[in-house]
Automatic annotation (TrEMBL):
Entry-linked SUPFAM superfamilies: SpoIIaa-like (SSF52091)
Origin: domain of life: Bacteria
Family listed: Belongs to the anti-sigma-factor antagonist family.
Domain STAS residue range list: 1-108
UniProt GO molecular function: anti-sigma factor antagonist activity
Protein name: Anti-sigma factor antagonist
Amino acid sequence: MSITFEAHGPAVVADVQGRLDSTNAAAVEAELFKQLGSSAFVLDFTRLDYISSAGLRVVLVVAKRLKQSGNKFILAGLQPHIKDVFEISGFLGILDVADSRADALTRL
């Protein structure tokens, strides 16, 4: 698991690579929370291979924190098998999802 962060104007893009599961969810959440000061946040899952329920919780906690502070959150680049997990869990209906990082950045 690795996360890199890039600033794009007022937005921060977090590029998450690898697996997001119970073994690293707390560390990932802590890393993401360090970056939540911007007015917009894109979580790019283009290179995410796997997400567990612990990973889904991280996404929801980050989205909730950003919403409470009036900031924008977009989930981008879901691979088909990852998108299936979000769809089955019902999260696609409550999260703003973009097909790609570029699409997410144009929507900010």
